[in-house]
Every structure is written in C-alpha cells, then in structure tokens.
Design a protein that fits this description.
Radius of gyration: 51 Å
Helix content: 25-40%
Strand order of the largest sheet: 1-2
Shape: rod-shaped
C-alpha cells in the first residue's frame, strides 16, 4: 500500500504539471483571441453589442473589457470606472441600477424616483426648475421621463385648454421645465389664447374695430401677462395723455364704440373735440362746469335731449326748437336764423306776441326775427325799415317814435 500511494502521488503530480503546462500555454495564447472566438460560445452578449452597443461596439473588444476567463481568472466582469471616469456621472455608484445590460448601455431601466443621477448630465433642466418653481419642481425626473430620452405628452397629466388642443400646441406657450413662465412667438394664433381667455377672445371676435384682425401675441408680446401701451401703435389724442386715460374711453379688446363713465375728465374729450371744448370754455355759462360725459352719457356720439335737464319754454316744444336759439356748447347768447317761428319766441315772450297778433298794424304779419335779427335782445331802429317819414322839425320835437306810435308791437296812429 505504501508503494501504491507513492506511485499514485507521483502520477497525480505528473498530471498537475502537465495540466499546468497546458494552462500556461492557453494563458500565453489568450492575447491572440478575438471577438470571433468569443462568439463561438457567447451568443447573446455579442448580438446585444452588435444591435445597441454604442461605443462598446467600436471602441473596445471583448478581450479588452474581460481580462480573463474562468477557471484561470474569476474576476472577469470589469468595473465601469475602468474606462468611464473624469465626469460626475461616472463617479456614481451602482451603475447597473440603470444600465442593467452593459452590452446595451443606453437602454436604461428607470424607476419613478430617480433625480440625482439624472442631474449629473442634465444640469440646465434643474436650474430652470429651481429658478421657476412649479409642481414640476417637486417631481422626480423619472416621474415624467419613464425611459431615457423619452419626452412625455403633456396631456398624460394635464387637461388640454380646449378639446382641439394637441401636444404641439402646449409647447407654443409652455416650456416643460418652467411651465408657468408662459412665453410665445408673435405669430401664435389667437385661438390658442382663446382656449384660456375665452371671454376676452369672444369680446375681440365681436368687436367692429381693427383689433379683431390682430393676433393677441402682437400686442401681448412674448411674455404672458404683458399689457402693452396703447401708444405703441396709436398716436395719443394729446401729447400728455397717459395710458390710464386711454382706457377711460376705450376697452382694449373692443375699442369701438367708445364708452366711458360719467366722471371722465372733459379735457380727455377735448383731445379729439378741441373746437367744441374751446367753445364751451368761452361760453361763460353753467355748461362750463359740467363734464362732457354728464350730458353725453356712457356712449360716444350720444346727443342728449335738452329737456333732460332743462324745463322747455313751452309744453309742446321739441328738441329741434331748442337748438334754433341755443347752441349746446355755447347756449348764451341766444342766436337764431331769420326763419325761426314767432311761436318759439312766445315760449318766453308770450305777452309780447299776444299784443303783436292783436294789433291791426302791418307789424302783426311779421315774424319776430324779421325785426330782431339773428341776436336775442337786439332792438332795431324804426328808421331801418321806415326811413325818416316826418319832417326834421317834427322829429326834433318828438325824437322817439314811441312818443306818438306807442310800441312797435302795438302801433297807434
């Protein structure tokens, strides 16, 4: 038995020496292996590299990553940091958490709570999220980006502003990483604004003014909530006119017809109606103290009835008869044309007209304005019509015609 053990031991040692020699030869020849050799046994990994290996396909070979092969080397899986270094992303631990298959390195497997690793590459996005806070700021990156490079549809989480709205419309106003900082181009169709601002858009569409033909974004340039100055496009009615004055008469989305409150300053009206305003201020009447809007209530172009404020001179007096003697912006002095009816004068001078009409003299056939021409209280000289019918001696003795002929409205002979 002792000899047999010795023989068997010697034979085992010989086998080990022989195996070691073969192994040594195999190890020495390993450098000559190529990818073509690996694929003879390893089918899946080379196929994955071929399909989606990215830089792993061209920049390195199997042998350069896998430095040994079992059973001679047990550490055959390389560390990622062996090649990938020098950047913050490469300093992360647990690469295989996302890059589950290193032979398809950019086919990432993401869970819904990842943010930090994303930010090692996508730093500009987090800056926007922090600078412009929104609900998006509180979300993990992978709550929206379920796969690397995937841009999610806004409508997965958000209700559209209108039924017709598609994903492309969202991006015209909202940037995903600062969604509340609404911004847009000047050619944005107004209907996109109308999906949120439906009341304003409706007013604009019903307007008879040219604003109806202008895109919302042409006035509300670039940034949401920006209110333009009217003077950006329109010459102000007066040099010192402020924006706040414009809106006292014009609504931006329906600038015509003009409408105003009764406290709008008369000088605002004067910006357009300067002739009328000057006439009013020169009138020396109580109308001077009244705002234009007090009479021309609410709507531009409205002409009030005098009887709204004034008692008519006669019950049956019409508005047109008022203006035969009084100009609205300069009601005094009274002035009229030659064709004014005597009954209009009678509204104030009833007794005088009664006396005239009862007279048998030719004057009774004349209208008041025939003698009292154009201007109220103008008393004509009898000689304007009658010349000097008596001798100079008689006229010297009786200088006033009334000395003999009573009054002009009731002549005596």
């Amino acid at each position: 038995m002792g000899k047999q053990k010795i023989v068997m031991t010697l034979m085992l040692l010989g086998c080990l020496v022989l195996f070691a020699g073969v192994a040594s030869a195999a190890i020495e020849s390993r450098a000559a292996l190529s990818n073509d050799d690996c694929v003879k046994c390893h089918l899946e990994a080379p196929q994955a590299i071929e399909e989606a290996g990215m830089a792993h396909k061209e920049a390195v070979t199997c042998i350069e990553c896998h430095a040994g092969h079992a059973p001679f080397s047990l550490e055959v899986i390389p560390e990622c940091g062996q090649c990938h270094a020098g950047e913050a992303h490469f300093d992360l631990d647990a690469c295989l958490t996302c890059h589950a298959n290193p032979h398809r390195p950019l086919e990432l497997k993401l869970t819904k709570d990842i943010t930090g690793p994303c930010l090692t590459c996508h730093d500009s996005q987090i800056e926007k999220l922090k600078t412009f806070p929104s609900v998006h700021t509180s979300l993990a990156c992978t709550a929206c980006h379920n796969a690397h490079g995937e841009i999610p549809e806004c409508l997965k989480c958000h209700q559209p502003h209108s039924e017709e709205m598609v994903q492309a419309d969202c991006a015209k106003c909202h940037e995903a990483h600062k969604p509340l900082e609404v911004a847009y181009e000047s050619d944005l169709p107004s209907i996109s604004c109308g999906s949120c601002h439906d009341d304003v858009f409706g007013t604009l569409q019903l307007s008879v003014a040219k604003h109806k033909e202008v895109n919302c974004a042409t006035c509300h340039e670039a940034t949401h909530g920006q209110i333009p100055e009217c003077s950006n496009c329109h010459e102000p009615h007066a040099e010192d006119m402020a924006q706040s004055e414009c809106t006292k008469c014009h609504e931006a989305h329906s600038p015509m017809p003009v409408a105003y409150a009764d406290n709008v300053a008369a000088k605002n009206c004067a910006a357009c109606h300067d002739g009328v305003y000057a006439e009013l201020n020169a009138s020396n009447t109580l109308h001077m103290e009244v705002n234009c809007a007090t009479c021309h209530e609410s709507n531009h172009g409205y002409i009030p009835q005098c009887a709204n404020c004034h008692e008519p001179h006669a019950e049956d007096m019409a508005q047109t008869e008022c203006t035969q003697c009084h100009q609205a912006h300069q009601p005094m002095p009274v002035a009229y044309g030659e064709d004014i009816a005597s009954k209009n004068c009678a509204a104030c001078h009833a007794d005088t007209l009664d006396t005239l009409q009862a007279s048998k003299a030719a004057h009774s056939a004349l209208d008041c304005a025939f003698c009292h021409q154009n201007q109220h209280k103008m008393v004509p000289e009898c000689t304007q019509c009658h010349g000097a019918p008596h001798s100079a001696k008689m006229l010297a003795k009786f200088p006033s015609c009334a000395d003999c002929h009573n009054t002009a409205h009731d002549l005596a002979f």
